[in-house]
Amino acid sequence: MKKSILAISERKEILKQVRKELLGEYEIITFNNFLDGLDMLRESDFDIILLDQNMTWFTFTEVRRKLNGIGKDFVVVGLIEEETEEVLKDLRGADIYNYLLKPLCIKEFNKLIFPALQSLSILKEKRKLEKKLSDTEEIQEIVGQSTKIKEVKNLIDKIAESDLTVLVSGENGVGKELIAAEIYKKSDRRKKSFMVINCASMSSDIIESELFGYERDVFPGSGSGKVGILEEADGGTVFLDEITGLDIKAQAKLLRVIEYGEFRRVGGNKTKKVNIRFIVSTNKNLKTEVESGKFRSDLYHRLTAFPIEMAPLRERKDDIPLLANYFLNKIVVDIHREMPIISSDTMKYLG
């Protein structure tokens, strides 16, 4: 899927040149009026905002302030005539990601924007995961009274206060992340961070940068470097969703963190120490992944010390009435209606 660009300049010849240069590789919409472009940004999502410095009524700082008010995540790149002290000062003050000299060249643009798009993907993924986690935290306990759910709850109570690594397995959508959140909430680490990363949704390079962080100037535009999730979560819990999304190289680094509590940032030589409890999940058979060479056997043995398997709803139909009433109650509270009664015929249909 092509990345989307919103380009804004009061000079139509600039916009024409930008379209000609970028249209083959990007979805691009152009405006010759900043306020009209701002309205478009409110209505639609863009990955990159390309701003020409020639705007009659606004400096880069003023533009950035208005963009921040939109409340969306995107990368802002300035397009300038020359690197004067005044212009560079305005760019720095506006916290613009970076800039390019006109006329725009797609090779230079791609070289500049690649690390920024990586960071943007991570940021958007974190936003989604944070929302998912906040939604999960509304549930104080796992809903269900079937034998299999009771077994899961007992395992959670048994393991929560230890520091053992936990492997949660099950099909997509069974609530593996809910189990991880429940373990965290009942653990001694509940006053510390609970960080979540979906290993299947990002490339291996992005996952490594997100987990371990990176040193300055490792990537173009990486600036002063970045603190990774492991450093942020020191003393807390990290949930690695769909662990098979890690490649062999990242698996080796993770194993070292689990065994020795130490790692190095990407591009760094200094060893950092952390105290973290790991919970991981998978919808695959890890043993099969090991046999096929896709997963390290030593990491497999470290992760399978305490497994919890979440059965799909079709195998615990006794939970359907409780779940149906739970979610129906959430809906009627939100819309300020009285709680209806689900008929026995409807329940039979759901089961």
Task: Give a summary of the structure in a few sentences.
The protein has 351 residues and is an alpha/beta fold. It contains 14 helices and 12 strands.
Helical amount: 40-55%
CATH C-level name of the largest domain:
Alpha Beta
The gyration radius over C-alpha positions equals: 25 Å
Q: CATH superfamily assignment of the largest domain?
A: P-loop containing nucleotide triphosphate hydrolases
Report strand %: 15-25%
CATH topology-level fold name of the largest domain: Rossmann fold
For the biggest β-sheet, the strand order reads 2-1-3-4-5
Rounded mean pLDDT score:
86
**Number of strand segments:** 12
Which spans of ≥5 residues are poorly predicted at pLDDT below 50?
none
Largest sheet: 5 strands, parallel
Distance between the termini: 39 Å
Can you tell me the number of structural domains?
3
CATH architecture of the largest domain: 3-Layer(aba) Sandwich
Protein structure class: alpha/beta
Q: What is the molecular shape?
A: globular
Order of helices and strands: EHEHEHEHEHHEHEHHEHEEEHHEHH
